[in-house]
Task: structure prediction
Amino acid sequence: MDSQMTDDHLLVKAATRAGKTLGLEESNIAQLLHTNSPNATGESCDKQACALLIELYKLLSHSTSNNEQSMRHWMKTRNRHFDEIPLQMAKTATGLERLIAYLESLNH
Result:
């Protein structure tokens, strides 16, 4: 296995773990990351989507003092700012970008 395949696999694995913690289904994660399966080995991925999903996890983890139950609650509860449910928004790169921008604005 070459280093690029290993790097991609690690990135997919980290993004998948972040997505699952936030409450995303495996099928949604695979679609977002452009992989056949979030558990695939040696498969290329959408690196930007991986980075966005990991960043969302980090920001939300910081905002909730790393409380996974609070993170999932926030993701499943309609947000007044967006008038949408963050979990639904997190299924697209654009939605992830909007969520990240919102959480970053709260931290400043």
In short: Helices lie at 3-22, 26-33, 47-63, 68-76, 86-89, 93-106. The radius of gyration is 14 Å. The mean pLDDT is 89. DSSP finds six helices and no strands in the chain.
